[in-house]
Amino acid sequence: MRRPSLVLAVATAAALVTFASPAHAGPPGTWTTISGPGVSNIVEPGLYRTADGSLHVAITEAQPGNTSAINVAHVGAGGQLTGRSAAVTGWATQTQDPDIVGAPGGGMRLVFGGVRTTTTSDPYSEGYVYSASSDASGGTWTLAPNTTPTIASNSGYASYGTGVTTLADGTVVAAYPLNATITYQVGANPPQSFTLPSCCAYDMSLVNDGGTVWAAWYSNGSGAANQGIFVRTLYPALGPVIQAPDSQTGGSSLSTNQAVAMAARVGGGVYVAYVKGYPSTKAVALWKVGDAKPKLVKHSKDAGNVALSAGPGGRLWLAFDDSDNNIHAVHTDASAKTLGANQLIKTPKRSTVYEVGVEGTSGRADIVFNNGTAILHTQALYGLSVKAKPGAITAGRPGKVTFTVTDAGDPVKGAKVKAKGRSCKTDKHGKCSITFPGLPPRPFDVRATKASYAAGTVEIKVKR
Q: DSSP class of residue 347?
């Protein structure tokens, strides 16, 4: 589980902007380093997209002189790194999971726990959860007064994973666990807390679903009732603690290792993604809070770090890593009931994946991961799924195969399906057919493509 790391400090709140020159990026699936040096393997970036389509990524980085800073990388809508801004620099202690949320007027707030110096006369030595603000560009950040902290609790610097969201009027709601206690604060109200029956809680996430703020956390307490993923409403009132189905197995569970993957779907509904199984992952589970059972993602055995984001029109984006340290991206349809293609996105050679993040509100998925020393970024498009009927033809004889191309269950018109030098284009039902000549008894892949989609493939067997 994440722990805050401590470093010695000198204090400064100056904002410094540095730009990558030239701006660079690759097509979806190409990884770009967006952090500076000094990233440890427990750093979990905060992601926020402004109205202009830019993605802003908050990253805690160790600095010379044993100090710590939170820097913000800016990624254009097309995936290019356009610059980096120094937001909060020269602190002794900063939490490793800074969050960015929106602010009134289209700006942003950066939320983090920390201690600027250990000098008691320093107004930022209390260990609260603080904030800094910026306009939509993220170029210059202003540290909020210590008299208006996000959470006025002096254990905020030691958070086991802070969660943040906002209400419709811009009021910030934040929460963090420490041992068996969860502390939270709504706007300028005094902090409140509740205690779990068994220690400990980690990796808090918050979302706002139509004015109701939900919290989610991971717990490794004693006994089946205190293991796994839990959710609870914090605002406008505390609700019951609900255990996510299949998030524990026989009284044991796998740690999340990062913020619990939770999203408020456009159109309503709170969704949580997590791994099912113990001592190894059997599948990634996607649970709509209130449902009796989660949906399981195919081909997600041995998944580790899981991230979730709302997408436009009610869709959701999932991202997770696998045992080979590659990333998978999966999207849903607009109802969030049907899962689309499970896309494999290979990471650079010899990478180790420590934290995974995804932001999908633009339609594309912006994906980041921590390789232990840096934060890398890429994008993913909605993926095509291809089915073939029949799935096998006879060697040496002509065989007609009908293909169905879908986007998370919805038919895709105008997709080109191609193999063995032959092709067809799908109709409004997502269907088209190819008659293959007599072929040798070897399987082959058929590929479906369409602009603005990731290609899909299906294997056709050729029987003797």
A: P
**Secondary structure class of 62 (helix, strand, coil):** strand
> Which residues make Cβ contacts (< 8 Å) with residue 458, sequence separation at least 6?
386, 387, 388, 391, 403, 445, 446, 448
Chain segment 157-176, per-residue pLDDT in tens: 999 999 999 999 999 999 99
> What is the pLDDT, as a whole number, of residue 27?
65
Nearest to 221 by CA among 185, 184, 182, 191: 182
pTM attached to this predicted model = 0.93
In the numeric block, the tokens 């505390």 are attached to: 238
> Between the CA of residue 456 and those of 190, 284, 380, 388, 453, what are the distances in Å?
52, 21, 13, 12, 9
Give, in degrees to the nearest 5, the angle at Cα 65 between 162 and 132.
35
Delineate the domains of the chain, giving CATH numbers in brackets: 5-380 (2.130.10.10), 385-463 (2.60.40.10)
**pLDDT tens-place string over residues 218-260:** 999 999 999 999 999 999 999 999 999 999 999 999 999 999 9
Q: Is the separation of the CB atoms in 248 and 278 below 8 Å?
A: yes
Place of tokens 């600095």: 63
Mean residue pLDDT across the chain:
94
Here the tokens at position 401 are: 């195969």
Strand bridging mode 456-463 / 392-394: parallel
pLDDT per residue over 363-382, tens digit each? Answer: 999 999 999 999 999 999 99
Beta bridge partners of 321: 327
Give the integer Cα–Cα distance in Å for 412 and 385: 9
What is the dihedral sign for C-alpha 410, 411, 416, 422? positive
Is residue 106 classed as helix, strand or coil in its secondary structure? helix
